[in-house]
Amino acid sequence: MKAIRLKTEYLKNPLGIDFTAPRLFWNCADGVRQTAHQVICHDENENLLWDSGKIESGSMHTIYAGTPLHSRVHVVWQVRLWDENDVPGDWSEPAVFELGLLHADDWRAQWITGDYIPDPKRRYPVDCFKTTFVAGEIKKARLYATACGVYQAALNGQPVEGFTLAPGVTDYRKRVQYQTYDITALVQSGENALTVQMADGWYRGCCGAWGLRNQYGTETKLLAQLELMLTDGTVQTVCTDGSWQWSNDGPVRFADNKDGERIDARRTPTYSGHAKITTHPVQPTTSDNEPLTEHERLAAKILHTPSGRTVLDFGQNIAGILQFTVQAKAGQRICLRFGEMLDENGEFTQKNIQTSNEKITSPLQQVDYVCKAGRNDYKTAFAIFGFQHVLVESEIPVDPAAFTAIAVYTDMERTGWFSSSNELLNKFFDSTVWSAKNNHADLPTDCPTRERHGWAGDAQIFCPTACTLFDYAAFARKYERDLCDAQHKNGCFTQIAPVGGVDSYMNAMDGSAGWSDAGVLIPWDVYAAYGDRKILEENYDAMCRYARYKIGTLGKWYPTAMPTGIGLKHGKDISNYGQSYGEWAEPEDVKAFAISEFVSPHPEETTAYIVYLMEQMEKIARLLGHDADAAEFAAAAKRARSGYQHLVATKKHSLDTDRQAKLVRPLYMKLLNKPQTAYARKRLIKALDNYGWRLGTGFLSTPFILDVLADIDLQYAYRLLENEELPGWLCMPKQGATTIWENWEGPNAAAPASLDHYSKGAVCDWLFRVMCGIQVDGENHFTITPRPGGHFTHAEAAYVSAYGRVESTWHKTENGFTFTITIPANCTATVILPGQAPQELAAGEYTLESAYK
Ligand code: BGC
After folding, report:
1. Which of 207, 355, 455, 512 to mutate to test the pocket of ligand 1 (most atoms within 8 A of CB)?
2. Which end of the chain is more exposed for a tag (fewer CB within 10 A), N or C?
């Protein structure tokens, strides 16, 4: 038996983490059961740091417990396993991790900035910093760097690769992430030049729907420390300080995450001035997240629009950058505009992704490039665009082969695959995977174009699907930190984190049910998927403060009156407090949008989510051994559930409704008493009949409806899933979508919006969990209950869980169904096939027949 897929704190061979007792994870291959493991750790000089010895345990993880780890230590670790016969296997391939700079005094570098006094109203060219040094004979070299802004370093003209838009996004006033790069191969003997370009990034550049600027500060700044470990054992350090040269006369005349770049390739920076020393009150820390990196490379086809314009079509909507190589005369221009769609006349448009009034249009998503003589190589460095199409206006002929689009997203390991006999569903699934990639740029965004905000509701809705498609734990840990950084003093979580770019009037929506609840629901989902108690422990206080804030809203009615009909007695048990979104974005013919939706409380949704939240909090508190807290949350859940039951007994919030969301939510969250439940189940089917079995839910309930229907009758769930009419999941691929749309009508809507909003793809979790029946059920155990139905003749899902790769496939046959199930080594599964008794199976691949029709 052998250990595979070694990870340190969910990361693949991370450099620069700050865990001094990291968790080491692996999966098992070749064998049935792991009875013992042994981990050994060495430093890079092969000194033993830890030998765990043979530990009798079936757990596929351990916590480092060797020689105390200090800054910069490089650890190489391996695992060997004993199988069910107590036979030891081979040592695993080695994995590594390296600690970063843990203490303030590890940093000798000083923060530096450009030599000018920034005027918040102006935009500035990119800062160019340079220093030179003569390197001794080196064994290895590391660059530790960060910025308030975004930076890109190069050594001797070679880019230091590994993170696009470094250092990523946080609330820089509270937390700044630094990166650690292995630059050993870039250092040359003799003279070296280290250069760094720095742009505004999220720090000073456009953030949010309106592209608000200067959100975290006005003075961009850089911190960099290069450490050369020499063969004689000494360390040579090169640090940012006042001796660094500076100018802002390089080729990048303007750069902004959302707006794009203006390049004059004829320029080279003179570095004629000097950097200024400055300060920043926050000690940089590691992100302990996967980096934001380049991925798929796409080729273009050329289109000529009816008005004669030239458009590159990359065939797939992505979030990413553009690269081109052209031959030109000096001064020739190329203007590029990035967009997601062509309008009804077949012309390029950016209207669906922009917010505009007479003063502001955001984002611009454009590159204006002035060529130098000869060969011009361009790759976007300081922006990401959401696009499938690029409008090209060029003074040189456009050869599509010269252009490559590169997808950029956080480098999470892909863990989920699905396909079935329904091609439209397969396309919908692929579109969801793309939208998930496109919306993970160090933070979970709503869309990679218009707002690019870390909307908590979208992330919360999508989290179970994200945990299925990707190894999401490290990303979620980072986002939870962002949520906690933004938490209000009274415990209220924000609806968006990090907060930069949120209009002040939008702050009133903090606490919104389903959005701010992300601060509790995301850690809970991560625990459920990965068995990770630590994310609960680390955030427990913040979660409790939020839960208590929410309890405090029970019995409050503000800014409007108590809902009519409920009466004072039961009004105390509901929350009618504050502004919130409610269900949000139901189809217009189900619930027409009214501006009052924005400015009023939504007692039904809010009270429901209080019950739901309290129930998760009760489980979390019990799990962590906080029994008094658990009792408090259980009591609050009971109180809010009673309030809810009285609320839906009033006329205004009656269960006698065609609004599917109003029935799905209480059924999914189990909020109703028995007669109410029976009524709501029937009423939901009637509501679907009345709506032609199309999807009528909004933002919050769309991920729940198939579970609720499957609970009533599985065939109802399939009937809705297979609906190809509008609104419905499959109407998107039917119209040619390559990503998930914000509006069901997508580009065909009266006012098209974003075409890359992943939240409606949250239904994909159901395809794994119910349709193919894969559920993680505690450590090293699965429940596998495939549930074929509808017109499907085949479905298959593969999921690389925390405990290894599990697969479930079914095919319809003449006699029933054939099921193929793969259970990873060292795991067991309770397999329940339709119409059969549960069976306990050990690791292995099984083909099982069922006469189920
Ligand atoms: C965003 C969403 C978000 C919502 C809040 C939109 O503008 O794009 O996805 O959750 O506002 O209602």
Report:
1. 455
2. C
